[in-house]
Structures are given as structure tokens and as C-alpha cells.
Amino acid sequence: MAANKKKIGVFIVLGLIAIVFIVSLVNRRGGDSYKEVSALKVVSHYVRDEVSARGDVKAVQEMQVVSQVSGIVSEVLVEDGQRVVRGQVLFRLDTTDIGGQLYQAESALASARLAVRRELINLRIAYQEAKNVLESAEKEYARVSELHEIGSASDEELRRAKDALESARQQLSSAKQQLNLREGLPPDANRPEELSEIDYIVENSPEVKQAKANLESARQNIGRYVISASIPGIVGTVAATRGMVVAPGTPLAYIYDDSVLEILSYVDEVDVPGVKKGSPVRIESDLALDKELFGWVSWISPIIEASASGKTARVKIRLSDDSKGYVRIGASCSVFIGGDERLSPVIPLDAYFIENSKQYVWILVPYESSAKQGGASDMGNKASVESENDSFYNGNGFEIGKSINTDGLYVTKKQEIETGTLGPGYIEVTSGLKEGDYILASSDMLITEGMQVKIADVSDSVKPSEEGENE
After folding, report:
1. 34-46+344-470 and 68-94+225-249 share one CATH topology?
2. What CATH code would you report for 68-94+225-249?
3. Which of 28, 204, 412, 456 has the greatest number of CB atoms lying within 10 Å of its CB?
4. Where would one find the signal peptide in this protein (predicted)?
5. How far apart are CA 53 and CA 263, in angstroms?
């Protein structure tokens, strides 16, 4: 009885083995029963080495609003987050104590103008009178001289007429010098035939100019009590409150010009040689997880500085106009600075897998080429495929670029590869594949070495973004 049960068990095992063999044979030779797969044709595209770093978004132009004078805040005209334009009034300080200074300066200017005008008019009158006196003295001297020649005038009368003439000349000279000086002319200059406008002379007199300067100083001083925006942008935290006492240099608010944004990043000193001004930059931000942002390197610090994370160099990255709308000032982000550009094969991330710290893809070989290369008519002999076709699987045994016959059979081969630069959705292959090779589109766990498959569809391997290619 026990022997019969033992025989039955052996038959069951043999039957299961037979079933497995038949299923396997059908999977290998059964036409429509072959596994259908999606394939990728390996293509090459431009890729760049990337230097990664962290950074913070900043405004290229920003302004700390501070008080220039001591005083008391009387008006706060802005609030946090408000957008302002250049010249917009932000705060006013109380001007009660200095209001009299402006009034005094205005009064002094009016007084100076009046005084100069009066003096000018008086000097012109005095000059004209001196001219008249000289003219009379000249006539008198001529009359006395004629009388003296005929003996009708004494020597004393001639001397007095001569002295009067000399005195009139001196008075006219003195009047001319004073008038010239008042009008801004050299003292001994000849008087112009046409007199200058009184208003012109008044406004250009030293007294009036000084009074104007004093008034401008008073206006500027009182203008410091009105605090305006010197740049357009968004107001940050407003620190000032109404009634607050301030001193020169007291911070009142911050303004950030968000029309041009940049990222201040810190690049490790080891990576600095690979960073060039103008290099394209790919940016990732938590504020725009579904967006790929871009910029370029605008400045590289010539100094390596010590920080908590090691020795780094500051690098400024200018955000493109299309990208700046997705980030905010103060936000942190990751930057990937592009280095040298080269043409290399690329594959999608899903197309390769890792075993024992090595990277592999499933490469596809036409059944007929594989059989011919291996010298075996039965591709069920996996040992023959694995041991004899290494050179073929490395891409040296069939015509690259020849169109695949999707009605035919293909054999899978696990191909070791080495990878390079990681991009958005793709990775560079530095060895093990080349342009024109065909691979499985994904690392299917059900695929085994030497499996015969049919190709359902073929497409090019993943293409990097246009920005990554052309920048």
C-alpha cells in the first residue's frame, strides 16, 4: 500500500514537471503566446554636468527705509505687502518744532531781495547825480578858466573851480565802482549803455543767493520729515507705528523690487571650477513642485568663505522672466548649475534596474540574428545565448538603425551599464549602450534572461527638455 502511494507521488511530480516544460515550450515557441513588450530605441541628446547647491530667492534691488532725522512718527501710510511706486510717501514725521525754520528762511529771502533792490535803485540814482555834478563842475571850470585868461577871475576862483571839478570826478568814480559791484561788474568797468533788469541783478546778488541756499536747506531739512520710496516694489514688514519716537538710522520698513529676482546660493569650493558666468541653471522650488524653473549664473564671488557647511563661494543666479512668477522673495530652493555640454545616449529612469550595486537594462536582440550569432538553431538553449553572444549584446553584431520587424521574435539580454548625469526623467548612459540599441521600456520583474518576446511598440528613449539642450 505504501509502495503504491510512493509510486503515485512520483507520477504526480513527473506530471507537474512535464506541465511546466510544456508551458515553457509554449511560451518560447507558441506564436501569439509570446510576451509582448514595449521597446525603446536608444537615442543621443545633449546633456550637461550639473553642480547642485541650495539658495534663497532675493530681489536684485532692495531698500531699507530709515529715518534721517530725530522726530515722532505722525503718519504711517503703508502696510505689510503693499505695492508702492518710486516717490510714494510712506511715513511722515511731526514738523511742529521745525516749521518756524522754514518760515524764517522764507522771510529772510524776501528781506534780502527787498534790500538789494533798494540799494540798487539808490546806487543808480547816486551815480546819475554824480554824473550831473561832474557835468556842472566841468562847465564851471571852463567858464572860470576863460575869465581867468582875460583877467576877470582871480587865481583863487580858478583853484576853487579846479578843486570842485576834481571832487566831482572822484565822486562819480566812487559811485560807478559801487554800482558796478552791485550789478556784478568789475569796479572800473565802463557803464553799459543799456541797464540790466533789476530782477536779474537782485536774484544773482550774493545776499539773495545765500538766502536761497538757506531756504533750500530748510526745505530739505523739513523734507527729511517726509519719507518716500526711492525704488518701486513690495513693502516688507513695517516696523514704524504712529507716535513712535525715531532717531537717525531707525529702520521703518523694507522695500523689495520684485521685477528682477535672483537666487543667492553657496557652492562648495570643490565644485566652483565647474561654474561659469552665464551657465544655464535648473531650479527646483517647493513653491512650484510641478514647474521646472530656469535661470543663469550672473555673478561668482572671487572669495572662498568659511561657513557652517564648509568652505563655499557665493554664486548669484538670475531668474528668467518666465520663472520668477512661481517663486517668492525669501523662499529656499535647489539649483542645478549646468556645466560642459556633450552628446550622449540617454534612457528613462524606469528602463534600468540595480542588482548587487550594478546597473542593468534589458537589451533586445532579434531572434534570427541571435541564433545566427550564437550558432544555435534552438534558442531555448539559454547557456548558448549567454556564453557565446557577449560581443553581440554589446552592440557589435548587428546593423544599427535597421528597422525592427515587430512581427518577429526577440531575445532578452541583461546588459550592464554605467550612468552619468541625472536629468529630469532621464539618465545619461556612459557605457554599455549606444545610439540605435533597443531596450525594454521598463525593468519588468517578470522578464528573465534569454526570454523570447514580441515587440508591441517602439519609441525613442526619453528626450531631455529643450531648455536643457539649448541653453
Report:
1. no
2. 2.40.50.100
3. 412
4. none
5. 11
Dist. CA 450–CA 379, nearest whole Å: 8
pLDDT in tens, 401-458: 334 444 578 999 999 999 988 877 889 999 999 998 999 988 777 888 889 888 888 8
Class of domain 34-46+344-470: mainly beta
CATH class name, domain 49-58+258-341: mainly beta
Q: For the purposes of burial, counting CB atoms within 10 Å of the CB of 144, is it exposed (0-12), middle (13-18) or buried (19 or more)? A: buried
Residue 346: which H helix or E strand, with range? strand 332-348
Q: Where are the domains of the chain?
A: 34-46+344-470, 49-58+258-341, 68-94+225-249, 99-219
Residue with cell 514704524: 240
Output DSSP code: residue 43: E
pTM: 0.54
pLDDT beyond 70 at 83: yes
Work out whether strand 83-84 and strand 233-235 pair parallel, antiparallel, or are unpaired: antiparallel
Q: What is the pLDDT of residues 5-31, one digit of tens each?
A: 566 666 666 666 666 555 555 555 444
> Greatest CA separation found in the chain?
194
Rounded Cα distance, 88 and 230, in Å: 8
Are the C-beta atoms of 63 and 196 separated by less than 8 Å?
Answer: no
Determine contact, residues 312/304, Cβ cutoff 8 Å.
Answer: yes
Q: Which helix (H) or strand (E) holds 112?
A: helix 99-149
> In angstroms, rounded to a whole number, what is the distance separating the alpha carbons of residues 377 and 380?
9
Q: Tell me the residue ranges of DSSP E strands in 397-449.
A: 410-423, 426-431, 438-440
One-letter amino acid of 380: G
Q: In the Cβ-directed half-sphere of 75, how many Cα atoms lie within 13 Å? A: 12
* Rounded-to-integer distance, Cα 229 and Cα 299, Å: 27
Residue 353 to residue 192: CA distance in whole angstroms: 102
**With contact defined as beta carbons under 8 Å apart, do 238 and 255 qualify?**
no
Taking each helix axis as running N to C, give the angle between helix 99-149 and helix 155-183, from 0 to 180 degrees, rounded to the nearest 10: 150
| 100: Cβ contacts below 8 Å, ≥ 6 apart | none
